[in-house]
């Protein structure tokens, strides 16, 4: 309980045990859904930005969330193709990496540079805390 009130999973609506970060009902982080209000447990409608009952803001859905291990693996193994950028919702950079990684071989240097940048990004993703990764990419 926060401030003496029960907490409800915003994805499945079940009341969560005090101090829990993961819902025992659905496996999502308590505040990573948008079907139920985390403050009062009231069901929410699609596209609703705040709870009608208590006016608490609606938080992102649990489904479709980006995973930092997947981002690391994409950047490490397929970074020169920009797969990690597409995965993280940055298609412009993904296209740039893809062009440099494929057509860039004619100039020799661009794919090497993109490969080094992707390797550094892979290390950054895996070293980033879960909270920091969620704030930046989810």
Structural class from helices and strands?
A: mainly alpha
Largest sheet: 2 strands, antiparallel
Q: Rg from C-alpha positions?
A: 20 Å
In terms of DSSP E residues, the strand content is under 5%
Note poorly predicted spans: none
Structure in words:
By secondary structure, the protein is mainly α. Helix 1 (68-78) runs antiparallel to helix 4 (109-127) and helix 3 (91-102) packs across helix 4 (109-127). It has a two-stranded antiparallel sheet. Helices cover 40% and strands 3% of the residues. The protein has two domains: 1-65, no CATH class; 68-137, no CATH class.
Salient structural properties:
138 residues, 5 helices, 40% helix
Describe the SSE topology:
Elements: E1 7-8, E2 15-16, H1 68-78, H2 83-87, H3 91-102, H4 109-127, H5 130-137
Antiparallel strand pairs: 1-2
Please give a quick description of this structure:
This protein has a two-stranded antiparallel ribbon with strand order 1-2. The chain starts with 6 loop residues before the first strand and ends with a helix.
């Amino acid at each position: 309980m926060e401030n003496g009130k029960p907490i409800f999973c915003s994805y499945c609506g079940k009341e969560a045990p005090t101090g829990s970060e993961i819902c025992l009902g659905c496996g999502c982080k308590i505040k990573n859904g948008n079907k139920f209000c985390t403050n009062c447990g009231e069901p929410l409608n699609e596209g609703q930005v705040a709870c009608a009952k208590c006016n608490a803001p609606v938080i992102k859905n649990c489904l479709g969330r980006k995973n930092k291990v997947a981002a690391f693996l994409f950047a490490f193994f397929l970074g020169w193709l920009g797969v990690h950028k597409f995965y993280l919702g940055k298609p412009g950079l993904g296209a740039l990496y893809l062009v440099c990684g494929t057509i860039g071989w004619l100039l020799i240097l661009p794919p090497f540079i993109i490969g080094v940048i992707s390797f550094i990004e892979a290390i950054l993703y895996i070293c980033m805390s879960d909270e920091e990764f969620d704030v930046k990419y989810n």
